[in-house]
UniProtKB/TrEMBL annotation:
Residues 658-724 form the PilB3-like C-terminal domain. InterPro entries: P-loop_NTPase, PilB3-like_C, PilB3-like_N, T2SS/T4SS_dom, T4SS_GSP_E_ATPase. The lineage of its organism: Archaea, Methanobacteriati, Methanobacteriota, Stenosarchaea group, Halobacteria. CDD domains: VirB11-like_ATPase. GO terms for molecular function: ATP hydrolysis activity. Residues 1-29, 815-840 are annotated as: Disordered. This is Type II/IV secretion system ATPase subunit. Residues 188-227 form the PilB3-like N-terminal domain. Residues 409-602 form the Bacterial type II secretion system protein E domain.
Length: 840
């Protein structure tokens, strides 16, 4: 093309011709302002309009219009060329010329004489144009074959995930574990039928987890992705591991024994780098490959003569043949991979270290030699992983776990129950003496940050009404047992409801494996200890700790689990007025009664009535999903001597058909609390409703972090009026930082650990139930607190209450606190408010 330029060139040529040409007919100024020559077109022998198509006087305007039209046509043509896809029947040779042959003005190339060079398609294609169709067909077949190879040799990742972003650190660098490592983590034969379901980091930037669904096997697969090590790097690691065992012995013992995990990691890092520098494996290595250096280290290959002068390091060693994946030197990334692997193996949990970092995993188990590791995932339940141990490695790993737990394991004592340094429980078995499949282990993960009552409500394990009932019962010193099968959530519930214990109460916990975590500072945490010898001398069991607890004057005893004869002592303690919370293995209330009142525990039926409540929990399925539900909350009322039976009554019951909880009748426990506190029925209902409102507010506002929930519950127990005023005005969230400052409660949660806790969101039904409770409170309970003003909440409190709670209420300005009656349906008579320091 380029026609507009041609027109412009013609016009310029004609205008520069003084003696003739078409445009010479126009008058021009001569030098010295000579008169313009004009031409009488009528005097010519021919008619110019016949040849021009217009009168000569109109010709300049016609040329200008033509130029403008040519420019517009040029732009439109260029847009069409650019917008045309390179597809059959759409892309023409003219498109090709514009892209690869013409210059930017649309002119073809020219030779030295200015002659346009002809267009030769074959010179561009490399083959005759008539072969195009056949070649495209062959290329399409080849592309399909390549696509099939890609499909077989790469994993099917989620296309919605931005992998560049996922495998990047916060400062934009690539993570140590990346897409390459993901491909290496999945065996070639499984790539085609593995489809990604979910991925998340467990130890960024070193380890992530990808959950796949196997189309072929119709099951989920848990895949750990860590930095892949080639054979050379693996041999370097093996060599350094042996050298580190010796080097660490002579390093800073204080850092290894008394230092933090970071201090110990620094020792491993510094010693590793020292060894790498000593053997010129980083920075100082010249032309020698890593393979050659380690052939010499391991005395592989021919002997090499050394000069009389001692050569330092490995740089003087012979140059071997370069093999695949031998980069010649250890790059920075390779060094970081080595450091991660060494720190993981020396200080962490070796091959399962990434799994130990996964807060979504409840249990980790390996069932024997040549068996993969299985995990119990909170979302996907029992899932097989890509992690496994060889026979020797599994034996060594189990021995290491026992040693790190302060236990010994051997063929003479092949089974050990242990508590790992992070608080997780482990059952370890060594060898084939008691297990046909050989060495095995099961680890029950310890939660650094416990779940809360709000989590149990959001999971629908308990209803709002049930949780408010348990709150009022525990706050008023009612004893409770959580019973159920394995993994039914007993300990989780025990930890959660422990937040209802008033912070001004003394608590003693008794466990064989540390699982209970409480925010209350007046808490003695007792743990059993086996004897150091083969006899029982020096053994401290639950029975001993219970006896010691009586001399510590506790108001609450939290016992991790009742298993044997210590249960009899526990009920004796209950009968003396000590409130007890514990767990027990039994699937029903009848089974609880039977096991406690028969050997080996053998609690008398008259003493059993010292227990107030039994919560039966179960792990079941709802709409195909495995869930945990509280089946019943049962009251233990009294012993019927005439019929020799214990009278019990279900207060709440779970309905499997509708997945709902029903309240079955009036509660004797609540009536006893009403009598003990001197309340009337309306006051009792008001107190119960207040607690439902607090729980509903936390659910509806998505305030479910441990610190948020613990601070709110403990602040309410200490000063319910202040918290209700904050709820009424919607200011609770703004005041949480102040509420956490209670001196009797230590709420010090690592934000990073809290951030990875898989806390559930409420389902629509739970959120609607919470909203309905708040709507009721908005027209009744909140009216009293919302309308108060003129003076501070602190000024309205009694002097001794102010002194006790000054820490948590500092800086909280609120409205006045009168005693106006509450509106129906929750009514408190005027003057019935207690101001004598009792907890409401």
């Amino acid at each position: 093309m380029g026609y507009s330029a041609d027109v412009e060139r013609i016009v310029e040529t004609e205008q520069s011709d003084d003696d003739g040409g078409v445009l010479g007919a126009f008058g021009r100024k001569t030098t010295d302002d000579a008169p313009v020559r004009t031409r009488d077109w009528a005097a010519t022998e021919f008619s110019p309009a016949t040849y021009l198509g217009c009168h000569p006087d109109e010709f300049p305007a016609r040329v200008g219009h033509a130029k403008a039209n040519a420019n517009r046509l040029y732009d439109q043509y260029a847009e069409w060329i650019a917008a045309t896809p390179v597809t059959k029947d759409a892309y023409t040779w003219e498109h090709f010329k514009w892209e690869y042959h013409y210059d930017e003005d649309g002119h073809p190339p020219s030779d030295g004489d200015g002659t346009a060079e002809p267009f030769d398609p074959e010179s561009f294609l490399g083959f005759p144009p008539e072969e195009m169709e056949d070649r495209l067909t062959r290329a399409s077949d080849f592309a399909a074959a390549v696509d099939d190879i890609v499909d077989r040799r790469t994993v099917n990742v989620n296309p919605e995930i931005d992998e560049d972003s996922f495998f990047s650190t916060h400062d934009g660098l690539t993570t140590l574990a990346n897409r390459y490592d993901l491909e290496k983590a999945v065996p070639m034969e499984k790539k085609r039928h593995f489809v990604e379901v979910e991925r998340y980091w467990v130890n960024k930037p070193y380890a992530c987890v990808v959950v796949f669904h196997s189309i072929k096997e119709n099951e989920k697969k848990y895949t750990v992705v860590e930095p892949y090590m080639n054979d050379i790097e693996a041999r370097v690691k093996e060599y350094l591991t042996g050298r580190l065992r010796t080097a660490v012995k002579y390093s800073d013992e204080d850092a290894l024994i008394d230092g933090s995990e970071a201090d110990r990691a620094d020792v491993i890092r510094s010693e590793t780098l020292r060894l790498l520098d000593q053997y010129d494996l980083r920075d100082g290595v010249r032309d020698d490959s890593v393979v050659g250096q380690f052939k010499d280290l391991f005395d592989i290959g021919e002997a090499v003569e050394r000069s009389d002068r001692e050569l330092q390091g490995l740089a003087a060693r012979p140059e071997p043949a370069v093999i695949e994946e031998d980069a010649g030197t250890l790059t920075e990334a390779q060094v970081e991979r080595l450091l991660y692997e060494l720190q993981r193996d020396f200080l962490g949990y070796e091959r399962i270290d990434a799994i130990k970092h996964d807060v979504n995993v409840e249990d980790i188990s390996c069932d024997g030699y040549d068996s993969p590791v299985f995990v119990y995932h909170t979302e996907y339940e029992n899932v097989i992983t890509n992690v496994s141990h060889d026979e020797t490695g599994l034996d060594n790993f189990v021995v290491k776990l026992a040693q790190r737990s302060g236990k010994g394991i051997s063929k003479r004592r092949p089974q050990v129950d242990a508590t790992l340094p992070d608080g997780s429980r482990a059952q370890l078995t060594l060898g084939r003496e008691v297990s046909d499949h050989g060495t095995n282990y099961t680890i029950r993960q310890f939660k650094d940050v416990p779940f809360t009552p709000i989590d149990l409500i959001n999971w629908n394990t308990f209803s709002l009404e049930e949780m408010a009932f348990l709150w009022l019962a525990i706050e008023n010193n009612r004893s409770l047992i959580f019973a159920g099968g394995t993994a039914s959530g007993k300990t989780t519930s025990l930890n959660a409801v422990s937040l209802f214990i008033p912070s001004n109460s003394k608590i003693v916990s008794i466990e064989d494996t540390r699982e209970v975590e409480l925010p209350q500072r007046n808490w003695v945490a007792s743990v059993t200890r086996p004897s150091f010898g083969e006899d029982d001398v020096g053994d401290v069991d639950e029975f001993d700790l219970l006896e010691a607890a009586l001399r510590q004057r506790p108001e609450f005893i939290v016992m991790g689990e009742v298993r044997g004869e210590e249960g009899r002592t526990l009920f004796q303690i209950m009968s003396t007025g000590h409130t007890t919370l514990t767990t027990f293995h039994a699937d029903s209330v009848g089974e609880v009664l039977k096991r406690f009142t028969t050997d080996p525990i053998n609690v008398s039926k008259t003493m059993f009535t010292g227990l107030d409540l039994v919560s039966i929990q179960t792990q079941t399925r709802v709409q195909g999903r495995k869930v945990r539900r509280n089946k019943t909350i049962t009251e233990v009322n009294h012993y019927d001597a005439e019929n020799d039976e214990i009278n019990i009554r279900d207060i709440f019951e779970w309905q499997p058909e509708s997945d709902e909880f029903l309240q079955l009748g009036r509660s004797n426990t609540l009536q006893e609390i009403q009598f003990d506190r001197g309340w009337d029925h309306d006051r009792l209902q008001t107190e119960l409703f207040k607690r439902k409102v607090v729980l509903a507010y936390l659910v509806d506002s998505d305030l479910n972090d441990y610190a948020e929930v613990a601070a709110t519950l403990q602040a309410f127990i200490n000063d319910p009026e202040a918290i209700l005023a904050l709820l009424a005005r919607g200011e609770l969230g703004e005041s949480l930082s102040d509420l956490r400052e209670m001196e009797s409660v230590e709420i010090d949660i690592d934000p990073e650990k809290e951030a990875v806790v898989p806390r559930p969101d409420p389902d629509p039904e739970t959120r609607q139930a919470a909203r309905e409770i708040l709507d009721t409170a908005d027209g009744t309970l909140f009216e009293e607190y919302r309308d108060r003003d003129a003076f501070s909440l602190m000024d309205a409190l009694p002097e001794h209450a102010r002194a006790k709670g000054a820490e948590i209420r500092s800086g909280l300005a609120a409205d006045g606190m009168g005693t106006a009656p509450l509106a129906d349906p929750v009514v408190v008579e005027q003057g019935d408010e207690r101001t004598d320091g009792d907890t409401e």
